[in-house]
Amino acid sequence: xxxxxxxxxxxxxxxxxxxxxxxxxxxxxxxxxxxxxxxxxxxxxxxxxxxxxxxxxxxxxxxxxxxxxxxxxxxxxxxxxxxxxxxxxxxxxxxxxxxxxxxxxxxxxxxxxxxxxxxxxxxxxxxxxxxxxxxxxxxxxxxxxxxxxxxxxxxxxxxxxxxxxxxxxxxxxxxxxxxxxxxxxxxxxxxxxxxxxxxxxxxxxxxxxxxxxxxxxxxxxxxxx
Length: 225
Hints:
Elements: H1 8-46, H2 53-77, H3 84-101, H4 107-134, H5 143-180, H6 182-187, H7 191-223
Helix pairs in contact: 1-2, 1-3, 2-7, 3-4, 4-5, 5-7
């Protein structure tokens, strides 16, 4: 049945079901990733292999970034009907994410799988952008909903055009450096420069995500009145 021919109360219930499914999916996939990270981090922590601790910390930040970004996106534009391709991309991103987390003691494989995760994230960003733009008409009025849409769109475009390409480039440079100069970056431990840089970038991105979450939450509250 077309949305315009269905009672508003029915669509509100269906929208809530879609949102509940999205929240469940996000929590499950990131819960699996967190469990994989906890298992992989036991050995280096117990053996006091300090050179791999930054990898575990960075991986934990990746979980926080993915979870918070997915939640605020769900609150902003997820409704009925549920988009299965969007959900499938979450599963794919989590799969590659777990692969990276299981290699926190192998710098080369870590950056290879993190690059894979970033590439899937780039696809997810592009797909989410199409979902956001599909909601432009429904967010045209009133002014509060228009402001929410403008913030959602601008933040999505900013992250997709700036942060994601920079992250992909950084990981690519790290992979090439470690692969072609293993004696320098593995035997002498200079891979730490790359993971510390990635750790700092993750902290910056998480801070930006938290600021965006706070702003978006205020706009969501205003638009719901």
